[in-house]
Amino acid sequence: MKTVLLVGPWVGEFGWELMAWQGWLRAITERKKFHRIIVLNTPGKESMYALPNSVYEDIVLPEVSGDASCYGRLFNKGEDAAAFYTWCRDKIQEVKEKAENEDATHVEILMPNYQNPYWCPTFWPYQKFISYRVKSATIYSKPTVAFVIRKRSFCSERNLDQSWWDSLASLLTKGGVEVLECPHTFEEARWVLSSVDLAIGGSTGGIHLASLCECPIYVWGVPFSIYGPWEISDKQRHEIAWNPLGAPLIETLNNVEGWKPKVDKVYGRVMFALEDIGRRAANLEKNKKLWQFKVWLPGRLRLMLGQFLFEVQNRKNRRLGSKLLEIIAPSKIERQ
User: For the chain, which residues make up each domain, given as ranges?
Assistant: First the structure.
């Protein structure tokens, strides 16, 4: 029997799409073979969803469609959330009927849970990740940094003024470092992030893409927690949970500097990061392996064990699972 998998559309945040959706789809299609896979999504992400026997269909979201938030959207007063999600489901139904008439006797639908975000582990068998690094990308002749500049209207207090970035660019240029702005389209961004020595910016989707391009990262922001086997801090999210390929990373995720770090401090950390974990750093491989061995690998193994115990707690023995989770959970100090 021919089975077609109909996927999407994704309407949430780009970072969540990278770390809690495309990898999940990839794992599903690895475990089960489909006659055809139809991916409905916004334009420009074809290579993100390059799967065997897949077809990518561009869709344009309705004009009034809120702001991306996790898996779904946040709507302003007066905007009709129900109508938007109905539009998404109607679009899926339209393509489903077309596929059934063409060549499928059965169509399976995979849609994000738009209004109820949930924890999706970033390891097999829950998700499968591939590197988006472009191996043929040009490596620049001198140290080069990509500015991953957040420009969203949603939570705009996290954005930095252009004058802040210009001041940092001026310091770096005087220090012999080239500066590029990371593009906001997937294909162009992955080429830049495959070429530069370091990606820098506040926590945002482009930083998560950098990790999947195996690009060294310096990230800043205000710490907050996400749901998982236990409360996962933003530090652990960037270093471990949402870093499935182990890209080397330096962070200042704290309440002191938060989203508005001082230019001179960022300049100093960028220069240090270029020497310590930048793509042309003399001891990159040694430093990367040491960081992965001390921080990343133990964290990933703990998350895997935590997920197993989390499922014991939910499906078999709540008391035993809770007790064991308590024992292996990171301490409050580790979570900071």
Answer: 3-110, 144-292, 297-335
